[in-house]
Amino acid sequence: MIRNIxxxxxxxxxxxDILNSKVETIRNLLEDTDVIPTNYRGSVTFTKPVEQSxxxxxxxxxxxxxxxxxxxxxxxxxxxxxxxxxxxCILCGRCRDTAPDLIVIGNKFNxxxxxxxxxxxxxxxxxQLAQKSVEETRIELKTRLQRTLGRSLAVREVDSGSCNGCxxxxxxxxxxxxxxxxxxxxxxASPRHADVLLVTGPSSxxxxxxxxxxxKATPEPKIVIAVGTCACSGGIFGDTYATTGGxxxxxxxxxxxxxxxxxxxxxLSGLLLAVDKLPSKA
Length: 282
Hints:
Shape: globular
Oligomer: single chain
Structural class: alpha/beta
Strand content: 5-15%
């Protein structure tokens, strides 16, 4: 029966006919100006400076509810200031629920930085988060890679004891949605072939020696990127008997990408920042 149906040409369309139909089955990421969902938790920001009259109660409450102690009270007799350490923030939202008039969680991710002090923000000095599109990042990455290396960028990903949340986002870089290879960036199987180490997790004690050996095996010039809150500071795991409390206590870190977990755009921005550091290390 199936043979008769085929002879009549009912299913005569070939795969070439289907591909040439010019029917778009998924939306084009590069044509979208804002592809981040509005409910995505990307960053914690202060909406206004802290008023002296209500500071003591708010500061105490925020310090208490913050699971990773990312919020702290820097009070002086003259003024009171609440600071946020983005390297410790896991974006749980408890601070927003406690002080909705002071704190808001936006969908823009925290920009990658080159040092930990840059990750500390104050309630009396709100920072504006600028975010580039994927296409803008692509053009900038290709230009800088050609100017700096004259070739592709080789990346080795190292899991030093994470919950695998960051690994999901790193894996997303290779899917058809982001397709990191079109930027001239490739993941390699050995640190001996790598230019950049993407390290996730707080570095458990069992992975400490392995991470050190991986770093030593990577040829110069090399860049280390701490991916996620756990890699930046220990995150929810903290600094305990089982972890080192951040990979910078094990190996030198050049770029910090905060987030729990950071989305692929943040990882691309971190790689862009890493390429900037390559000439000075060469």
